[in-house]
Amino acid sequence: MLSVYEGFFSGGARIVHSDVVLGLREGGQHHRVLSIHGEVHREATRQRMEDDACYRRLTAAEVGVTSLGRTFGAGGVGGGGGVDPAVFTGPELADTARATADADVVLSLKEQPLALLTRAGLPRRPVVVCLHRSDPENQGRALGDLKAAIADGTVAAAVCCAESTRAAYEAAGVPAGLLHVIPNGVDLIRFRPDAARRLAVRTALDVDPAAPVVVFAARYDGMKNVPLFLAAAAAWLDAVPDGHVLMCGAGMTTANPGLAGDIADAFAGAPDRAARLHLLGVRHDMETVYAASDVVALTSAWGEAAPLCLVEGMMCGAVPVTTDVGDSAAIVAGHGIVTSPDPQAVAAAWTEAVTRRDEFAPASAAARERFSRTRMIASYAALIDRVYAGSVQRIPQREDG
Q1: Which pLDDT score, from 0 to 100, does residue 376 have?
Q2: Whether residues 246 and 356 fall in one domain
Q3: Which of 196, 231, 250, 353 satisfies CB 3.0 to 4.6 Å to 219 for a cystine?
Q4: What is the rounded CA–CA span in Å between residue 66 and residue 38?
Q5: Residue 67 φ then ψ, to 5°
Q6: Distance in angstroms (rounded) separating the CA atoms of residues 342 and 348
Q7: Distance (Å, rounded) from C-alpha 211 to C-alpha 294?
Q8: Are residues 146 and 46 located together in one domain of the fold?
Q9: pLDDT category, 75, cuts 50, 70, 90?
């Protein structure tokens, strides 16, 4: 198996896909990963492949990871450097050909790598494209590349992480027969309520053990609607004097001028409330951050499919509160609250979630198997086996004599 990534940078899709690769390897498959970019500059953060938590987990498990060495952003590819991201050099295509030749099936993490995998002269291997958004027409040329790869027979199947993904791509013209829904799952041993973790994080942040805490785990991107989240945070912290808000993810630091401006706008004239807003940046111990929280919040406006933060947070005991985007409402049904995209409504929903936390806990505990990593990986393995079997059957048989 070969998985092709656009790059290693903070985000739920990369976390899920890397966990799938590790799980399939545990089941006996041989996996390699090829990353188009070796360094990505986005969300006001420089993200080197070698520094990424997913890269480190993969290489620690002896999964081979290589890169074409490109840089995205900061004057490189996609950042004003004048390089067409769909044009590849001879050495880049040669590296891709060598990696592809060793694979029986190729997994494409989202549709962006298809611009590479459909280049002429590469070994023909069935591609399973893994889709993690619910807005296929809002991603530049990616939808066109996907349709072209389907038309020329490169794509044998598409994994949709949510029903909203399947519906959106079918409506955009992708054949329904290619679309297979495999909901995201998480490691239930890692993501669980833990009193010791809860106390450790709160102690490190100087947060009272009994104080209500809301966590927002997202990269700094327009789809996440950070201004809405901050407006709600300002209203909630005003109404809840002992409350605290945690913000995690790429770009969630004071070094990001965009975020700094958003905070200044939301908390104008209220420095006491802003002091209870904790910017944690990229964390590699999200299980501890979620365990320390009472609410996991999502305020996204578009694009989400099956947000990983809602599942991870819920499995750690935090009540999910989300806007109605993608499959979010279905994920939190019976376990959390769906709110309108209004700051006061969001803040009120957080307060309700804190109040009803003990009420939601039994339902979330009973639903853990629904969100298990084991179930997700078994579904991926079954689909890959079917794709491989179909590709073998299509190979012309040599006639003896």
Answers
A1: 98
A2: yes
A3: 250
A4: 9
A5: -140, 150
A6: 10
A7: 9
A8: yes
A9: low
Using one digit for the tens of pLDDT, what is the confidence trace for 342-361?
999 999 999 999 999 999 99
- Residue 159 CA to residue 107 CA, distance in Å, equals 10
- Check pLDDT > 60 for residue 298: yes
> How far is the CA of 173 from the CAs of 65, 129, 137, 179, in angstroms?
33, 15, 11, 11
Instruction: Give the pair of three-digit tokens for residue 167.
Output: 């519906």
In contact, 301 and 223? CB cutoff 8 Å: yes
Kindly state the greatest CA–CA separation across the chain: 88
Query: pLDDT class for 69, splitting at 50, 70, 90?
Result: very high
Which pLDDT does position 193 carry in this prediction? 98
Structural domain of 55: 2-185+373-389
Are both 145 and 15 inside the same structural domain? yes
Segment (H or E) for 257: helix 257-266
CA distance 202 to 211: 9
- Are 164 and 208 in a shared domain? no
Name the pairing type of β-strands 295-298 and 213-217.
parallel
Give pLDDT, residue 393: 67
In a domain, 400, yes or no: no
How far apart, in whole angstroms, are the C-alpha atoms of residue 305 and residue 349? 21
Cβ burial of 337 (10 Å; 0-12, 13-18, 19+) is buried
Q: Are residues 61 and 126 in the same domain?
A: yes
Asked if residue 357 and residue 241 are part of one domain, the reply reads yes
User: Which two tokens mark 86?
Assistant: 């769909």
Side chain identity, residue 361: A
Give the helix ranges, DSSP H, for 130-178: 142-151, 163-171
Written as six digits, the tokens of 77 are 């590819």
What residue type is 147 in one-letter code?
K
pLDDT tops 90 at residue 392: no
For residues 60 and 139, membership in a common domain is answered with yes
Lowest mean pLDDT, pick from 85-89, 110-114, 203-207, 345-349: 85-89
Q: Considering the domain boundaries, does residue 121 fall inside one?
A: yes
pLDDT above 50 (res 80): no
For residues 356 and 380, membership in a common domain is answered with no
